[in-house]
Protein 1
Amino acid sequence: MERVPMTPDGFKKITEELDRLLKEERPQNIKDIATARAHGDLSENAEYAAAREKQSFLEGRIKELQSKVAMAQVIDPSKIKGDKISFGAKVKLFDLDTDEEKIFFLVGPDEADVKTGKISVTSPVGKALLGKVVGDEAIIKAPARTFSYEVLDIIFE
């Protein structure tokens, strides 16, 4: 079983969701199933079917989150030292094609969110940036086009 890198914030979000599902949503779902079952004929009971479907979703999500927690390797970026891009780095880049500055935060696959600039270390962009130092050029080949970035700054916070 391979460990998955995760920031403390990402780990906290996953454990909070798991806690909420176990302590709030699962017990409520059990009550919903009991209430729907009390309404009689289960073969034509839409409330019962919906509650059972939700139960299936909840149990699947709980198992998924428990697996993520078990495989997580929590790494605090503020404790990382170095001048190379690695997991947890906040990277300031200069797009050589559009002359724009971009900031990416390299995180684990479960935390990636392109809208907020969080890029997975396993993504094509993340892989292309790993190991680079200030002044290096990173070339990312995407299906639509090739991106060229110059590394301006690397921050671990």
Note: The CA atoms of residues 6 and 85 lie 16 Å apart.
Protein 2
Amino acid sequence: MIKAELFKGAGTQPKTITVFPSTEMHIVCPHCGIKGTVRKEYPPEQAFNITCPKCKQFIIINVNKRQFYRKKVKIEASYYIEGTSSPFKKGTIIDISTGGLRLRCYKTVSVHAKTGNYISLSFSLPPREDPIKVQGEIVTIIEETDKTMSFGLKFKNLSEFEETQIGFFLQA
């Protein structure tokens, strides 16, 4: 078991990992790769630090405070920013939850690509081939490279069918 303790500021910079809060959190040391478990009587509400028992490096453990489980994916999608006359564009969904998703795409010069605006998306969740059509509000915009950006989208007005399809996909 990896022992939780206060950060003491050792010579090397500590690395950070993120875990979902629970009374037993499984982690992997980002320095040496040893697997361990952090046990706490009550799930943590904020970040804490540990020392790896093998390499003695400090690790900062961030607590994931997301409301929904998020799954990393690589799913092609067609989208357009509502309120524009531009045609559908291609993008890639890089993570998805029942609350929203992150869409990576080529940088757009549209003045409509801003927080608070809406995007309509069409994509298929494996193994199904039927497209799901959803609407999402832009909550974050991140410029990733000089050519790509990503939108953090919060789903709006999901139908029961769409919500069920996404929920089943996340459980697979």
Note: The radius of gyration is 20 Å.
